Amino acid sequence: MKTLLITGAQGMLGSALQQELKDEFRIVAASRDTLDISSFEKVKDYLSELKPDIILHAAAYTNVEEAERKPEDCYRVNYHGTLNLLNAAGGFPHKFIYISSTGCYGNHKGEPYSEYDEVRPTTVYHRSKYEGEKLVTGFSNDFLVLRTGWLFGGSTEHKKNFVFNRYKEAAPKTELTSDPFQSGNPTNTEDVARQIGLLIEENIRGTYNVVCGGSCTRYEYVKFIVETFGLPCKVNPADKPFPRLAKVSPNEAAINDNLIAMGLNRMPHWQESLAKYINEIREHV
Question: Is residue 185 within 8 Å of residue 146, measured between CB atoms?
């Protein structure tokens, strides 16, 4: 059985990957407590002993606002951490899978982005992720760069569970305001994990958007969550964008053009996947 190393294993996607791929691989789940990817010596010692067949790099500094204040912290994880993993793994054959973001495309198109569209990141976070992408495509002969959307899913106890947090926010209120000015693809971590499993099985290489079908605004996303939970809270569109330090693109929506062209797209529509997820977690509310 091949060994699969997952960095960022305690995150929502890392947890979904462990559950989805546990029967296919010997999974080594690395968290920030067990593997400090910002230290080359620690990464080198760790990988020289483990020698995984596949490295699935899902660990990242994801605080978009804080990255603008402390870009060096963001780059230490997203850029140097990736550089350390690639260099430390250079002595043995492996597949390298890098989790990136559709936000890397930036703000130069009103329609969903395809993989052949130019990448022009507008924030420190997205620039750091794109620089990590370039390391992977330059270092590795067997790689997957996967640009995901607005990830949801996982345990209701996870502090970054967007869907359950919106439920808790809306439950005691009669009205709620949300942002109608930014678009993206709500994307279930379980769907991403299944899609990654297929790409590994088919030994696919290259750069791919991996998002649920369809796109919506944040307002439409939150409105769907509240209505699907059956809450009486009314969700209203904000009359102006919420103030943010990071110049996040108003359009982070993408389409899985490469997967579709290859007949490998298994990602469902976001509404279908989100409704299914909400029905699964109702017992926790």
Answer: no
> Could you count the other beta carbons within 10 Å of the beta carbon of residue 69?
12
Read off the tokens for 106.
């930036």
Contact 174, 232 (CB under 8 A): yes
- In tens, the pLDDT along 235-276 reads 999 999 889 999 999 999 999 999 999 999 999 999 999 999
DSSP per residue over 86-153, as a string?
Answer: HHHTTTS--EEEEEEEGGGGBSS-SSPBPTTSPPB--SHHHHHHHHHHHHHHHH-SSEEEEEE-EEE-
Distances (CA, A) of 145 to 57, 115, 119, 207: 10, 11, 13, 5
DSSP state of 249: -
Question: Contact 187/213 with Cβ under 8 angstroms?
Answer: no
**Nearest partner of 129 among 219, 179, 194, 67, judged by Cα:** 67
Q: Residues 259, 263, 268, 270: is their CA dihedral positive or negative?
A: positive
3-state secondary structure of 173: coil
Task: Tell me which DSSP letter residue 161 carries.
Answer: -
Residue 235 sits at the vertex; the CA angle it makes with 178 and 180, to the nearest 5 degrees, is 35
The number of residues in the chain equals 285
Residue 99 and residue 148 in contact, taking contact as beta carbons nearer than 8 Å:
yes
- The number of CA neighbours under 13 Å toward the Cβ of 260 is 12
- Reference 85, options 117, 56, 125, 114; nearest CA is 56
CA torsion through residues 114, 118, 124, 128, sign: positive
Residue 285 has pLDDT above 80, yes or no: no
Instruction: Please check whether residue 75 is in contact with residue 128, taking contact to mean a CB–CB distance below 8 angstroms.
Output: yes
pLDDT tens-digit readout, 172-188: 999 999 999 999 999 99
Mapped onto helix, strand or coil, the DSSP state of residue 264 is coil
